[in-house]
Amino acid sequence: MPTHNTSSVFNSDPELLAIGVLYVILTVVVFPAYALLIHALHSRGDLKENISYKLLNLLNYCDVSQSFCHFLTGIFLIFPVVAEKAQFFVRIIGCTANTLWLATFVIMAILASTRIGIAFFKIKATKWSVWMIISLVIGSIYIFTVWIVGCITQNFELTGPNWAYDMKVKYADLFASLELVLCFPTLALSFISYILIIYSIYKKRRISRSSSSSFRTEVGILVQATILTTYMALLITFWHNAESWFKMTNYTLASLNCVWILFSHLNFILLVSTNKGVRNQILRPFCSKNRSRQTSKLVPLSHVSSTMPVEK
């Protein structure tokens, strides 16, 4: 009977094999964590009509979808025969992961503007304004264009353990530059919106002399804003300057990709650790004690631009 060499199925490069296994492990833990998070947020009926909540959930879905793409990246590294025989599909996965990453910035910009509008211009938290719809349409067209052009031209490739633009493809350098034009202004807008919202909370508290918006909540908003925006800014900076700053080895490239993968972990940890309402909602199914059915007050829902308490 013919014998099959099972070792040939796996990557013969031990470094890439180990990195592939690491990617799979890091991404697998995301799925149950975000399943609990998304279920917890969906179970809060008082937030289903809230615009900020809907945008926040879009960001969560982007995180999960990116993690799935990174999971497939690990599979491609463990079983290189898959990448060799389906290179067109592999590049589509890379383009999809990158497009989902860019989509988070588009949603962040709209979310930041929405929070400012609610805090200062009395925009209803449950009503879509015309400018919001127009912004979503323009952002969606941009994201879809980036994705469809990337899929057709195959401008994103898996180089060793890392994803990168294939500069041999026409217009790839243009799309790489557009990322910087999109990302850094969005991060600046998001952080400024945090500062303005914190100022609004502080001002309202002084006028009403109420303790409902506590100093602890304000600090939580600022901490989340600082950590997440700094993390994203550093990731983008390193990603676009890695070849100039570091020696390009498999471990260097894997480190860059792991920083990208771990963003969803960081967002989940900050969201749960600084939001008692969300934390209680997630832990509720696991608690054996009988608790009151009354929903606890939701404190800041966070994802770069959404750490302001959601109005009802």
Automatic annotation (TrEMBL):
Gene, per the UniProt record: srt-64
Keyword match Iron: no
Protein name as annotated: Serpentine Receptor, class T
Organism (species): Caenorhabditis elegans
InterPro entries: 7TM_GPCR_serpentine_rcpt_Srt
SUPFAM superfamilies named in the record: Family A G protein-coupled receptor-like (SSF81321)
Annotated Pfam families: 7TM_GPCR_Srt
TM regions (residue ranges): 16-37, 58-82, 88-112, 133-156, 176-199, 219-239, 251-272
UniProt keyword list: Membrane, Receptor, Transmembrane, Transmembrane helix
